[in-house]
Amino acid sequence: MNPTISIVSPVYRADKIVEKLVLELKNTLTKMGVSYEIILVDDRSKDNSWEVMKKIAQENTEVKCIRLSRNFGQHPTIMAGLSQAKGEWIVVMDCDLQDQPKEISKLYEKALEGFEVVQARRTVREDGFFKKMSSKVFSKIYGFFTDTIYDNEIANFGIYHKKAIQSVLQLGDSIKFFPLFINYVGYNATSIAVEHAQREEGNSTYSFSKLISLAFNTIISFSNKPLKLFVKFGMLISALSFGIGVYYLYQAMNNEIAVLGYTSIIVSIWFLSGIIITTIGVTGIYIGKIFDQTKNRPVYIIDEIVCLKN
Hints:
310 residues; alpha/beta; eight-stranded mixed beta sheet; 16% strand; elongated
């Protein structure tokens, strides 16, 4: 018999907190009186996370632990966990306990009102200044390039009906970003405010370069607006050049031009060359992403699964 709720949590360098995570999840779900399973997916952590996870799985029938063959990143790791979830409802949450297990009951109660997607909105974020600012900047940039509204107070944490998750798993994008996938598939969705806690241990594994890379890849994957902007910019430059050409023609016909300037020619050449090279570069990036997509490589590979139940 399939459980009512599946908990999916990606794990990376969390050997000191994963036991507490499971304990709090079990306490919360037991109080809720629902059948459940807990799926922990190790993104090939460099610490002892996998050893701790195996021990937990061997002692708890409700826990399934999965290890990937290498480090694939947070969102492919989430997809690996979702592919194994059997519950009517699936909760996705980070393992650092900033997403608090006690809030799951609120999400579930809201879902039972008739929603298929209930996302957790962190009204007060217990993150550092850099992470808050980078998240806000990403949401603004993403919203601009995709002509959508992206709420930076919402991340992975939420409860989702199995049909919404099945739709997410059917998306064939080689670049995975779970919150945007959930927004894309639609369904009857809402969000509720939840408490957001400070990290129990360590720091975020997202460095500045990783955040930039994630933002860049996500925008390229979900939008062709950069190409459209360059087309518009090129048309604007062409219109300005035509206007200047007409002006210079007028001056020539009235013998108002003495000696053409060397500087203006060089500046024009470098300026237009820069535009051309940039446009070709952006086009090349899109072609590269198309190439990656056509290879159809798996976005994750499962190495090992440990659980007491079959």
